[in-house]
Amino acid sequence: MIDWRHIDTVLLDMDGTLLDLHFDTHFWLEHLPRRYCEIHRLETSHGHALVERILAERGTLDWYSLRYWQR
After folding, report:
1. Range of the structural domain that residue 50 is part of
2. Residue 9 needs a FRET pair 20 to 30 A away by CA distance; which of 2, 41, 66, 69 works?
3. 54 close to 30: Cβ distance less than 8 angstroms
């Protein structure tokens, strides 16, 4: 049995299960960059640059690396 009191983070892969591609695309390419800019008080162009940087990692091992994205 898992002792949930000692779990800090739970990651779920819900692509195609609970969330459709439209929501996934909206969240990662529109919502996340916009909120990032709002939180860090950046111009929206920085959000677009963030999306480009994220998409540049597609097809690489870094795409799947939590350590990479944490940095």
Report:
1. 4-70
2. 41
3. no
Nearest-angstrom CA–CA distance, 32 and 70: 15
Report the alpha-carbon distance of residue 3 to residue 34 in Å, rounded: 36
pLDDT digits (tens, 9 = 90+) for 17-48: 666 778 878 888 889 889 989 999 999 888 88
One-letter amino acid at 41 equals: R
What is the pTM assigned to this prediction?
A: 0.56
Report the phi/psi class of residue 10: left, alpha or beta, with left for phi > 0 and alpha for psi in -120 to 50.
Answer: beta
Number of domains in the chain: 1
